[in-house]
Amino acid sequence: xxxxxxxxxxxxxxxxxxxxxxxxxxxxxxxxxxxxxxxxxxxxxxxxxxxxxxxxxxxxxxxxxxxxxxxxxxxxxxxxxxxxxxxxxxxxxxxxxxxxxxxxxxxxxxxxxxxxxxxxxxxxxxxxxxxxxxxxxxxxxxxxxxxxxxxxxxxxxxxxxxxxxxxxxxxxxxxxxxxxxxxxxxxxxxxxxxxxxxxxxxxxxxxxxxxxxxxxxxxxxxxxxxxxxxxxxxxxxxxxxxxxxxxxxxxxxxxxxxxxxxxxxxxxxxxxxxxxxxxxxxxxxxxxxxxxxxxxx
Length: 297
Description:
This protein is of the alpha/beta class and about 300 residues long. It has one domain (about 10-295): Ureohydrolase domain (Arginase, Chain A, 3-Layer(aba) Sandwich), CATH 3.40.800.10. Helices cover about 30% and strands about 15% of the residues. The protein is built from 8 helices and 10 strands. The strands form 2 sheets. Strands 4-1-5-10-9-6-7-8 form an 8-stranded parallel β-sheet, with helices on both faces. Strands 2-3 form a two-stranded antiparallel sheet. It is globular, with a radius of gyration of 18 Å.
């Protein structure tokens, strides 16, 4: 039986693209995952589970129903006849056409981040990418591929981005040496966080210039979201993740967009689908709180 198309984010009416402040962009792309599969179903699962989340956020005082909705865009579908680079170009073109909006992308494997970021800015030289991730994603090639979920941070860095990583606890010796030698890379390893947590939050609060936040769900502890391709122990707690969102929302940076990637739908519903959806909703709430504060509302 054919499954119904996914609903709009939070089951809210989808505003016209031109009338919205923010765009929800589903990117069901999966070509290079190297262990557990299924990330292509992540956007659909997150959208469906978001319909079970209350429209009022008691922590931030955000009422999504009263404060206006989002434009839930059609997903950018992959064509296996086209190259990975062509898919990323297609994503970039979609984002570039309406880049004055805040973009919340739902992956899909982590590779999609490159396409969104490329579409958001003319030049990546001034952009800071904050990544919550268990993996460094800085290897030059993974399984013979330069374009991969494990190389996305390296490709972005090559284009001039500053990369700030949080929660890394799985990387190659090559990546470790690259971090030590490379400029514009700042890595906060998982084993260091307990002793440096306030330092990290202060650092995030000091960020300025264009900013993009990428959340690979394996950056969180697998007790929260076990359903991902390469889970790793010792990840961020829920409260630590919210602290990161909060610090970024209060920073001087121009927050252009964010993504939630590498989520695999739970094999037995509802599983942790609603947790992944709540993660996306909280991202939207922190952005909206910031947006309202900056506009004086």
